[in-house]
Amino acid sequence: MARERLIGLIVALAVGALVSLAYFYGSFDAWQDKLLDRFFVTRAPPNDLLILAIDDESIHAIGNWPWRREVFAQTLSRLSGARAVGVDVAFAEGSLYGPADDAALLAALKTFKEKVVLPVQFDDRGGKVTLPYSLFEDIPAAFVNVRLDSDGIVRTVATMRGDYESFAKKIARVSDVPGVFRINYAGHAKTIPTIPFVDVSQGKILASVFKNKTVFIGVTANDLHDTIGTPLGVMPGVEVHANAVATIQSGAYLKDAPRGAAIPLILLAVLLPYAAIRFIKRFSLLIGAFAVVLAVLIFSALVAFSSGMIIPVLYLLFAEILSGGVLVAFQYFTESKEKKFIRTTFSFYLMPEVIDEILKDPEKLRLGGEKRKVTIFFSDIRGFTAISENMPAEALTKFINEYLTAMTDIVMEHNGLVDKYIGDAVMAFWGAPIENKEQAKDACRAVLAMSAKLKELNAKWAAEGVPSIGIGVGLNTGEVVVGNMGSEKRFNYTIMGDEVNFGSRLEGLNKAYGTQCIVSESTARELSGDPLFTLRKLDLVTVKGKKEPKKLFELITAPVTDTLKKQLAHFASGRVAYNAGAWDEAISHFKKALAFGADGPSTAFIERCEDLKANPPSNWNGVYEFKTK
Questions:
Q1: Is 248 in contact with 214 (CB distance < 8 Å)?
Q2: Non-local CB neighbours of 216 within 8 Å, separated by 6+ positions
Q3: Given a cut of 80, is residue 335 above it in pLDDT?
Q4: 425 close to 380: Cβ distance less than 8 angstroms
Q5: pTM for the whole thing?
């Protein structure tokens, strides 16, 4: 026991060292920033900041952009009592309305002396700097470029670039500002008090409103596209600058905790799970203790954040979770002999999910089943017989194992269970033994991933001289019997029922349509409204052994380009004509679809329409009957 405790302590400290190393090198700083974004809360906005918004209302009232500069001059004349004015509007060239227009703006700007700031824009790609028009060169200017993190979010501000101060620093007129600082955002967009530009321009706002205020003039209209991603969502660029000024003026900078304090916190975070595992034996209580520690860490980080201190909360959470997980696993493999035996014994022919169910209740190791709604998957390699006849046994084994491994991994990664392999065919299902409300979507995500993976494998095999392959997939959602089926001595966790047979039929129907994946109406219904999936209404058919017509849908696995959308639209029009028995019109639409590229369903329907045209059905209702499986 003492030896196990010592090993556990060593494991915990090793985890602490690993996380500390990751912290030192900033391995997860980007994710930490995303977590810290959640810590911002809307608070009372600064009462000395105002934004004059060039919004849709103002553009509608004043006229199309860009406006005459005399409009800005008139508005500036009403801001004479302001402490400072930041004009986040580029006046880089002479006015379209002539020198008099520029002169009017210049006169207004000069009345503010050093209290007004114009924007300077650095072109990071071209290396150019866009300065105010030469007529305004004596007016104070500062750069307005923002610092985008890798995820496109603006979290920090640099206060100098070349010879120019940042817009925020210039407006705040505070000398003691860090070279780079985090913006302490006051809240979501429009948290900073905002007034439509037109209301000020037309004199609807009293001049006293602006007395001793820092006023920003900037674009918020959607059509002018000056929006920036922030931790609190998208907001106009002018409001980002306003938040930066508020941070400077308040001195409420968000500072990282000293490294000397962070490392001990990480070590504490890995030792707490070690202590919990030593003294708490019941698993449910242990998990509860872990959850309490996580909650305390997050709460402490929130309190520190609200006080302006950033502690490495993600690294602390990672340290606790990793330490707890590793230590629990260590305890599991050293103390749970019976469970280890069961897992070792059955791991080669039962799925991990099934093993987990058995470990919870060993009584499940018996014959029996239950009704459950599942999504059934069948796939098959097209032309595999011909490939296998022309490939040596060793090469064929390597080929099929590589293919089945890739497809199996994808099923498992998307929460599915591989039931069995039937030669080159795969049968899998979602929704058992663990219930899954997203089962149909998970299955379709798996199909999309398989299609992408098959392209990679075909490219690799082509380089090795191995023929490319295609697959057909059938998906059906319905109620089946699921459980352990077989004999008393040997059985398998599987599914049975009519819906399973129909799923298999759907896979085979791909050959008739030249498609990759056909899904049933019940599966298609589960995907409704999800933009990730594109479905083509394929056909209404009766299959052998079934009396009721079945709606068939194709799950589009290719990228949905504009060309493909046009092709699908022509196919849909052809289907309308086909259902009405207008064979020539239907053929015309299907041929138009083929003009955008090869399309198995369009080709199949042209052949079918030609046949139906030559042999008109006596009572056509749009239902096609398949005579074979």
A1: no
A2: 49, 50, 51, 52, 85, 86, 88, 171, 238, 239, 241, 242, 245
A3: no
A4: yes
A5: 0.52
